[in-house]
Amino acid sequence: MKxxxxxxxxxxxxxxxxxxxxxxxxxxxxxxDLAHADPRDRQLAWALVLGxxxxxxxxxxxxxxxxxxxLSKMKSLTLQALRVGVYQLLFLDRVPASAAINETVKALKAxxxxxxxxxxxxxxxxxxxxxxxxxxGDTLAVAVRYSHPDWLVxxxxxxxxxxxxxxxxxxxxxxxxxxxxxxxxxxxxxxxIDTLREKGIEAEAGGYGPAAVCLTGYRGAVHDLPxxxxxxxxxxxxxxxxxxxxxxxxxxxxxxxxxxxxGGKTTHLARLLPESARLVAVEPSxxxxxxxxxxxxxxxxxxxxxxxxxxxxxxxxxxxRFAGILIDAPCSGLGVVRRHPxxxxxxxxxxxxxxxxxxxxxxxxxxxxxxxQGVLVYATCSMEPEEDEQVIDRFLLDHPAFAITGAxxxxxxxxxxxxxxxxxxxxxxxxxxLDGFFAARLVKG
Length: 445
Prior knowledge:
Elements: H1 5-19, H2 23-30, H3 39-54, H4 56-66, H5 76-91, H6 97-110, H7 115-130, H8 142-145, H9 150-160, H10 162-172, E1 178-182, H11 189-198, E2 203-205, E3 212-215, E4 233-235, H12 238-245, E5 254-257, H13 264-272, E6 278-282, H14 286-298, E7 305-308, E8 322-328, H15 343-346, H16 351-369, E9 370-380, H17 389-398, E10 402-405, E11 425-426, H18 429-432, E12 438-444
Parallel strand pairs: 5-6, 5-8, 6-7, 8-9
Antiparallel strand pairs: 1-3, 1-4, 2-3, 9-12, 10-12, 11-12
Helix pairs in contact: 1-2, 1-3, 1-5, 3-5, 4-5, 5-6, 5-7, 6-7, 9-10, 12-13, 16-17
């Protein structure tokens, strides 16, 4: 397929549908051929992919209203093209209807699709454009209107009630702000916001994280922001920024990030710890370790962190015991659906039990690596009790030497509303405008 921007978006969606890889990864790979294209074209292609993934179920409802041919019988290429076309017509006000229709059809022609099929797509899109007033979706079920799987909506309705469940789904379909964690040793928040505004970028200080800067409408490349190459900031939601603070007060001992990933919290800890402290980051994935090392280099923190390949349990045979351990555990990610819209389609309810098993194994391994009076922080980007409080309760049952300590004491005063009645950090996109995070602070007696 010729890689014009609509063609690129359709090809990426076909690849994502087939391989079930993270949609951001599919975008990076699929847009490689457009590396030298106009940045606005790349941004539009990216927006088309994420928009279609976010609104997929509603788009399919619309297509189904106008197609006599069942969606289940359509080729992936045809269905993705229809989704891209309908998404432009109904959600992108700045794209003229003629361009949305003609360019989508042109992408199919470039893919050498038969004339009858391009005619079918052209006719359906024009019909949608003529009758868009009939497609508000206000009377549709919440799961269809806001494009979430039935099991997840039903689950949230049972947990939070119908009104709040709908609010969560609605907010999940909005674009989140780009949030930076500024390195306050290199740049002051006020001065950096002024620098951004001088470049026409709207920004404001975060409402919770002491180093947070929120860019409300920025859609450009992250590496084009002031200070990127100098390591002034890391992309990180405010909720995630708060997790590392729970390991305080920081001492001169050794600290361990048991699930380092790309290093968002690793790099934060490296800045928070005194220079005499030692930080070890464990990451089993070679590709993630490479990106972790790149982040450490850009942020000028390579000499502050020892990166270890392998599993957390591999450290248990060593002699070192740590003053603080962070377990930012693998989880369903259902608290960050707003930021990663494909998660809603890649998860099933039975996945929660599998994740819980992994989470308990990680906590059990961490317990053996923590020194007496040490601090263990457990965190997930999930709002599901099976991955959050139930994990803590089961862990405490098996490890009576540990006790919960209230998170509020270790967070800024502005965060009081983010701490639940048991003293655990619990954020939600609909209530606080943050990613849905959970964190508990435990101390070993």
